[in-house]
Amino acid sequence: MHSETLQLAGASPGLTHGLRVLRYGQPGRGPKAMIQAALHADEVPAMLVAQGLRERLDALDAAGQLLGEVVLVPCANPLGLAQQLMGQHQGRFDLHDGVNFNRQVPDISAAVAAAVQGRLSDDAAANVALVRDELRRAAGALSARHPAEDLKLQLLRLAIDADIVLDLHCDAEATLHLYGLTPQAGLCAELGSLLGAEAILLATESGDSPFDEACSRPWFVVQQAHPGHPVPLACFSTTVELRGQADTAHALAAQDAEALVEFLRRRGVIAGPLRPLPTARCEPTPLAGSEPIVAPRCGVLVFHREPGARVQAGDLIADLVDVDSGVVEPLRAQSAGMLYARSATRWATPGQRVAKVAGSTLARTGKLLSP
Ligand SMILES: [Zn+2]
After folding, report:
1. For 2-283, which CATH class?
2. At 330, is the secondary structure helix, strand, or coil?
3. What is the rounded distance in angstroms from the CA atom of residue 71 to the CA atom of residue 368?
4. 251-302, pLDDT tens digit by residue?
5. d(CA 192, CA 129)
6. What whole-number distance in Å separates Cα of residue 76 and Cα of residue 251?
7. Residue-wise over 62-81: b if at least 16 C-beta within 10 A, else e?
């Protein structure tokens, strides 16, 4: 294992942050996986799973079991981790400008699709190598104006030529769920089976360029732009939501790290016999069918259903208690599906998404992810 600390651009003189990167295996030999934890900074279950991965990768490396390369970033957002405001952690948005740390990751899809124009052949492997060269070139040519942009860019450069990108997050209170690219439903389902995912949410574009799509969509865009040439989707990228903030436990982290190692084994990154795939706990559903349960006004939130509950259309999810009038307003699901996440606070603000149901009957358009 080789470790390094990348320096992030500082916002003012004397201020800088370091991004710790652990590298296993040999670059260029075998498939490459990039795994990062807690891009939203305060996602502690993800950081604990990364430590579990580190222990396992150290042991596998010592035993000569690394067939490919693994780049592990155990704490992907040192900027956000340092954002303590009056005793509260603010890890999701950059306090500099309010931008979500997992949005507006540079989208180099169009640049790469244009760069390979007239240079693709009938040889799929040669096309993959060409696209990968152009991805590295395009990511290398970008520049950042402030620390959060520099963070996104440095992480993108670590991931852009990988075969597998696992972006480990968690939700507020949630069951384990994944986000992925629609044409990669099969790999999402395989990873979901290993992790015991209760929901898998798919889109070809969710809006605002989250990190997983910044890595996987360029292949999809190149494929769509050049239908006459074989271009496989050579990067499988997914966001893994490791339950809720409070689901931080050694047993869960060990179980998740084992599942991720098994997925890397199945992809040829790690040697060893494969275990049978556990029975899937869910089928992938469109992200457009994920229903946000919205509080129309402020009030006290009293939940009636837990994360992991299967709900029917019309089911009562929560009561919203108006503290001026005493009126109790029921918040109901419109669609049937899995209640996969809910708010961790019990005071709702107007317009807040207080819970999410993975269904298949809605067809939302526009920006599909939470702010
Ligand atoms: Zn997150």
Report:
1. alpha beta
2. strand
3. 29
4. 999 999 999 999 999 999 999 999 999 999 999 999 999 999 999 999 999 9
5. 29
6. 23
7. eeebbbbbbbbbbbbbbbbb
CA 167 – ligand 1 centroid, Å: 9
Give Cβ neighbours of residue 160 (< 8 Å, ≥ 6 apart): 108, 135, 136, 139, 215, 218
What's the CA-to-centroid distance between 288 and ligand 1, angstroms? 19
Q: What confidence tens digit (pLDDT) does each residue in 148-171 have?
A: 999 999 999 999 999 999 999 999
Question: Rounded to whole angstroms, how far apart are CA atoms 68 and 247?
Answer: 31
Tokens found for residue 341: 């996440």
- Expressed in angstroms and rounded, the spacing between residue 248 Cα and the centre of ligand 1 is 15
Cα(39) to centroid(ligand 1), Å? 6
In this prediction the pTM is: 0.97
- Determine contact, residues 20/75, Cβ cutoff 8 Å: yes
Instruction: Determine the Cα–Cα distance for residues 187 and 147; give it in Å rounded to an integer.
Output: 33
Please state the domain extents for the chain: 2-283, 288-358
CATH code of 288-358, in short, is 2.40.50.100
What gap in Å lies between CA 35 and CA 71, rounded to an integer?
6
